[in-house]
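Lab notebook, bench 4. The sequencing result for the construct came back, and we need a structural model before the next group meeting so we can plan mutations. Quick request posted to the team channel:

Model the 3D structure of this chain.
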Amino acid sequence: MRLLSIILALLPLLSLSFSEATIETTTSPSTRQATIHYHILKPNTSPSPLTELTYHTSPTFEGPKPPNVDSFTPPPAPSIPVGGGNVTEQEQELIQIGIYDKNTGGLRPPTIVLATSAFSQQPGQGRGHFRIHLTSDGESVWSASYHNLPPSATTTTTAGTDGKGLPTFEIVYPKQGPRPVLNKPVALTKEGKVVGKEEVDERGFIQKYWWVFLGVAVLAMAGGGGDGK
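Done. Here's the predicted structure in token form:
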């Protein structure tokens, strides 16, 4: 009876510790916010925010999740030539995309350079897709890369609400690269021999069994002397 009462008294503590462990294992990873900037490569221009994202610092238990696009402001479209018509490839404005550096007032490397047409694609012409690469600890954004997806490709998070040619965003989490497989260090004895390695006799056949040939020669010489008497 005393043992049963002790077990009943410990049950609430056990259930409490189990619930705390369950809560700890199901807690979602922390989130961070990041701002991607663009810079029009023209004189007297400065970087401007392109998009603000909220992302998880590590994949969730269900797997990687796309970031939440809090805001998206595409670069201004190039001015239409006088007399109308389309903007030629030579008249396209180039923009630099990356992470803003407060110390320099510009974008820190690595950056990418795109044409403004990447943000004005029409439905059926593909869609721009940004991959946001995180640092090794996942606490900040390292760089961004741009890819042109075909119209039939499945996308992740669409920036904006209309979805007409607007780019999508994907978080790329760091992966641990392969590690070299090193052999164990070689231990040597005082004589310079490998510890635990059996010695291999590398002598030739004659070097090993010279004494056999010597014995045969002695017998032959001894037997030859008896025939001469």
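The first helix runs from residue 2 to 26.
Will bring this to the meeting.
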